[in-house]
Amino acid sequence: MKIVTVVGARPQFIKAAAVSRAITREFAGRCQEVLVHTGQHYDESMSQVFFDELGIPAPAHHLEISGGGHGAMTGRMLQSLEVVFQQEKPDWVLIYGDTNSTLAAALAAAKIHIPVAHVEAGLRSFNMRMPEEINRIVADRVSTLLLCPTQVAVDNLRAEGMIQGVHLVGDVMFDVSLHYRDLARSSSQVMERLQLAEGGFALATCHRAENTDDPVRLEAILGGLAEIARTFPVVLPLHPRTRKIITDRGLQPLVGGITLTDPLSFLDMVRLEQSARVVVTDSGGVQKEAYFYGVPCVTMRDQTEWTETVDLSWNTLVGADKDRIVAAALAARPPAGEQARPYGNGKAAEAVIGTLLG
Question: Taking the model in full, what pTM does it have?
Answer without folding.
Answer: 0.90
